[in-house]
Description:
The protein is mainly β. It has strands spanning 2-7, 10-13, 18-26, 33-39, 46-52, 58-60, 68-73, 78-83, 92-99, 113-114, 118-123. It is built from no helices and eleven strands.
Amino acid sequence: QVQLVESGGGLVQAGGSLRLSCAASGRTASSIAMGWFRQAPGKEREFVARIRWSGVSTFYADSVKGRFTISRDNAKNTVYLQMNGLKPEDTAVYYCAAATTVVHTPLPSGYDYWGQGTQVTVSS
């Protein structure tokens, strides 16, 4: 089992920034990659970004490219999501997830472990 705990959410004005953190514990060696997803009220959970624990490959949803940056600290088993230029449409609960497969997929079904989520609210 892998346990994931997100932090860093909050209320911010449009154009502002937030940095989310996701601390992983437990059998972290079983996870190949980490992803961030978000879910707004009444909408499906959607992919935001992904990074592997090794190497440099990252993936982003088109809606966040150029504004969000995913990074990792292997020594701390922690993944970050730096969010700049936030927009009201970025408002959602943000979830951290761990994948045990190599192949990238934007589908939630491609991830095996999930955190509890952290709320991000962007006011206009």
